[in-house]
Design brief:
Layout: H1 4-30, E1 32-37, H2 46-53, E2 63-68, H3 72-80, E3 86-90, H4 95-98, E4 103-110, E5 116-120, E6 135-138, H5 144-155, E7 164-167, H6 171-180, E8 185-189, H7 190-198, E9 203-207, E10 217-222, H8 223-228, H9 230-249, H10 251-262, H11 266-276, H12 288-301
Parallel strand pairs: 1-2, 1-3, 6-7, 6-8
Antiparallel strand pairs: 3-10, 4-10, 5-8, 5-9
Length: 321
């Protein structure tokens, strides 16, 4: 039989234990970072998977949760709704900040647009000069893909409208339209381009390897997390760039993790690794020249009416010293 004094002591001990447990849970929950990817399958965002599986974020006490979205717009909406804390998105997506999105870019994660290529049917145009007046599909109007197609036109001396840009949404629909002959080309990620070439269903026509001053991808953080969890952001960025350093020297391990993420075989994943690793930044600095190019692109695409004050769009305070 338990006497009242003993019962009281047991209740008090249980309450203290529950309180301690609750504090522990809250402390651990505070270390969770919800990180969004603009799309689930791009090799650009594979470092998040590598960092999680190889323990680079855990090393800094972070429980990183990966959440994939269907494009930059959905990603920005999730940040605005406080559904995620950080995001891996496109550099051109910084225009959303100029429009009032409650976020900032905290690291330039990749520079030149090596990820993308214009693909045609095997019997399609032979050179970029053959694209005049042709239809090339892009994801959405005003997107990075649309800008790269318009840049291809400008470089041929045709102005921004020399190639007919066709916004068509998701990539599977674009590929189907290409095969039917409804369009003449598609701009897509290099992994899918390699895959279609390997199957004999398409041919890579245009790469963007000569565009050096650019920021194709950045890491975003919400203003709320910037204000409330600066140490976690610093630790995440440390883990990210340690992951990039690991990937550069551990191709086999990276390919093994990346293949199921991008849904490609080891051969295609290996080729994609070789093509895209050079685009990743090792330190996250925002190149002023690259930011100028982005700023001009927003006006050219009609995304913004005028060039913004680019210094308000990003911060370098969380980068490794």
């Amino acid at each position: 039989m338990l006497y009242p004094t003993k019962v009281s002591r047991l209740i008090a001990m249980a309450a203290l234990a529950a309180l301690a447990f609750g504090c522990s849970v809250r402390a651990n929950a505070g270390d969770v970072l919800r990180v969004g990817k603009a799309v689930p399958e791009a090799f650009s965002f594979v470092p998040l998977d590598v960092g999680i599986q190889e323990g680079f974020f855990k090393k800094y006490g972070l429980d990183v949760q990966s959440i994939a979205f269907a494009g930059d717009a959905k990603l920005q909406q999730a940040m605005a709704a406080d559904s995620i804390d950080l995001a891996l998105g496109s550099g051109p997506g910084m225009a959303f900040i100029a429009k009032g999105s409650p976020v900032k870019a905290i690291a330039a994660m990749a520079g030149p647009p090596l990820l993308l290529a214009i693909v045609v049917r095997p019997d399609g145009p032979k050179t970029a000069a053959d694209l005049k007046g042709k239809k090339v599909s892009v994801s959405t109007a005003g997107s990075l893909t649309a800008w790269l197609v318009s840049q291809t036109s400008r470089r041929q001396g045709w102005g921004a409208q020399g190639i007919d840009v066709e916004p068509m949404g998701a990539l599977p629909g674009q590929i189907a339209a290409l095969k039917r002959g409804d369009i003449d080309g598609v701009i897509m990620d290099i992994g899918n381009a390699f895959d279609l070439e390997k199957k004999g269903e398409a041919r890579i026509l245009v790469r963007f390897t000569d565009i050096k001053d650019f920021i194709i991808h950045v890491i975003y953080a919400t203003n709320k997390v910037i204000a409330s969890r600066p140490d976690d952001l610093r630790n995440f960025v440390k883990g990210w760039f340690e992951t990039i350093a690991f990937m550069r020297t551990h191709k086999d391990e990276t390919v093994k993790i990346a293949a199921p993420v991008i849904s490609k075989d080891d051969d295609i994943t290996s080729r994609t690794y070789d093509e895209l690793m050079p685009m990743f930044s090792s330190g996250g600095k925002f190149s002023p020249k690259a930011m100028e190019v982005l700023s001009k692109s927003w006006v050219e695409l009609g995304t913004l009416p005028s060039e913004p004050d680019i210094k308000t769009l990003y911060t370098e305070e969380f980068l490794p010293k």
